[in-house]
Amino acid sequence: xxxxxxxxxxxxxxxxxxxxxxxxxxxxxxxxxxxxxxxxxxxxxxxxxxxxxxxxxxxxxxxxxxxxxxxxxxxxxxxxxxxxxxxxxxxxxxxxxxxxxxxxxxxxxxxxxxxxxxxxxxxxxxxxxxxxxxxxxxxxxxxxxxxxxxxxxxxxxxxxxxxxxxxxxxxxxxxxxxxxxxxxxxxxxxxxxxxxxxxxxxxxxxxxxxxxxxxxxxxxxxxxxxxxxxxxxxxxxxxxxxxxxxxxxxxxxxxxxxxxxxxxxxxxxxxxxxxxxxxxxxxxxxxxxxxxxxxxxxxxxxxxxxxxxxxxxxxxxxxxxxxxxxxxxxxxxxxxxxxxxxxxxxxxxxxxxxxxxxxxxxxxxxxxxxxxxxxxxxxxxxxxxxxxxxxxxxxxxxxxxxxxxxxxxxxxxxxxxxxxxxxxxxxxxxxxxxxxxxxxxxxxxxxxxxxxxxxxxxxxxxxxxxxxxxxxxxxxxxxxxxxxxxxxxxxxxxxxxxxxxxxxxxxxxxxxxxxxxxxxxxxxxxxxxxxxxxxxxxxxxxxxxxxxxxxxxxxxxxxxxxxxxxxxxxxxxxxxxxxxxxxxxxxxxxxxxxxxxxxxxxxxxxxxxxxxxxxxx
Length: 617
Ligand code: AMP
Hints:
Structural class: alpha+beta
Bound molecules: adenosine monophosphate
Strand order of the largest sheet: 19-18-13-14-15-20-23
Shape: elongated
Low-confidence stretches: 341-356, 502-510
CATH architecture of the largest domain: 2-Layer Sandwich
CATH topology of the largest domain: Nucleotidyltransferase, domain 5
Number of domains: 4
Largest sheet: 7 strands, mixed
CATH superfamily of the largest domain: ATPase, nucleotide binding domain
Number of helices: 15
Strand content: 25-35%
CATH class of the largest domain: Alpha Beta
């Protein structure tokens, strides 16, 4: 049996398919969701879930929540604001400080997974050791790898890492939609947001595009409520008070999905002073609007990437606990012009003509915080052969490529390519007698290698050859888990290296969506940089060739001085660093000046061949 696990930022869940039915497994108290919280007592084993949640206010420094934001991340990847947690982060890659010791986000996640595993074994009365685990579509390779390691640490064989929106689509039984159906999955959880466009074709799901933010969600709304409350409480909060206020804020937010007003009470905030205030749904919506509005740009971008208009969608599926908030439903149905618009607005009665738009249906059929785990279980059942007639395809959220000579990014697998996939390219040596080639693997959308994320690098030795004579084949393979394997082979000797990309090294603090936005923002200057680097490489080649020729044939040339002048011009143009017209002009002059030299070299080469064949004396 392969279980499905939704390893969420704030909550996690485990599901199985039994007798063709997918269902979540509840704990002894009947709770289906497990808080993604782990408490490390000073003595004894860590505890996960509800008992840990209760320790958040009591022992905040040793109680870890939202660790999904840090899994597989290095210090520079996480913005300062994101590091505002009640425990202490340390080291690189990021870890959580616990007194003198530290614990990795993977180890914390493994505790959550162990707790889910124990729950499943108790309910199913059998040992469970195979799982499908979901991750946000925007997780990069390092984050996926780290999640897989967490699964292994918890005692699972991780059969697949599945994108959350794809799992949600599976849970909604989309295979029943008409051929060529297209759906959007709007997933707003505690700490992540994704908007994915999926297409169903002949029973196969394909992710056409995906866009989002790995650090945007319900937690941000909680934070706004916390700030609002702290302003009113007007005492300098310690970590414990902060944690209490945060807890109260979330409770109030959840209640306001069904109530129009709640009273927040915090006894003994300072000595024996207590605090009480009323929060209305209207006020909450005002606080939450900026957070919700941030998701809109991602919706637009995903539609644009997929080349699909909102009106062409059949459904918009809502996933993630935060989509229970009426404001979210209202906004999403407005943006996508959903048929349910009138109904969800609440102020227009069902049956009003306004209701009869032919836009997509807002699909809220699944419990938004259960859909992902159910979908993962369905995927597990497909893998174990319990369900046969469905196949799943995912896409790469960012382009993958190599750094080339000159510091440019050479894309091997473009963004939004369906995985699993394989692609390769031949490279050659840039210098005579070169014996090593640096394979530097990059992820991102920028033209210059330095602006992208570095996934790793390795050297491949090859047979020394003249410049341009060696052939090194590089192949990228992304497996069904979205994990990248890079193979480099010297075609002359067959010598090869295969490297599984593990960590994102030297990554700056850009989130994936920032990467995409910045690539759009810098599109022109990036293009200019690429043009300059390519032109400069060509110019240097021309300079080297002309210098070599001059050295050999200076005596026979009548215009040697003209060539030298043209060479100086190109070299000073190269020093301008970015004046492309001047460089091009100088190279054109050099080309013109070296015409007689080229003719001469051609004649000499021809003579050499003829002599070799005994046709000249
Ligand atoms: P998820 O990551 O999908 O478990 O979503 C968790 C987020 O959804 C947290 O920020 C919760 O506070 C939020 N959430 C859960 N239920 C509700 C609700 N009924 N109304 C508003 N937000 C909710």
